[in-house]
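Hey L., structure's done. Input below.
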Amino acid sequence: MAIDEEHVRPDGVDDLTVEALGNISEALEAVEVARGHLYAFHRMSGTADLTLGKGVAQLREAGHTELADRIETELVGRNVLHGRWTFQIVEEYDDGYYADFRRLEQAGRDELVDGRRHLYEAEMKEDRRTHGRPGHEREPGARD
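Output:
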């Protein structure tokens, strides 16, 4: 029995094309993970700056005003890269590389396999699963 229609390769599409699109999709997944790490970097850097500000205020309150002033002047609110806070890095990544990657991955699927996703994985699942065995169904609700 075939897998759901959304995950069946269109007629005339060869193995190499499905494999190529699978690799491009896998690359996009890596980019998604990298983007998540970039957002984590953004969050952690912001948290660090706010916590640093609290520490500076506490130094000042404890009478260490010279050191507090130096840290506040040199580090609190400082750019993490030349001219940029992390939100600017995230925005540039999202609007440039990330947007282009997603657009071109989608274009490849649209042009070659009618926009279908995960064909390589769907075919791998069909090949690897034990047909008729619980926990190996082709899709939710199927009994094959």
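The CA atoms of residues 91 and 105 lie 20 Å apart. Residues 12-128 form one domain.

-- N.
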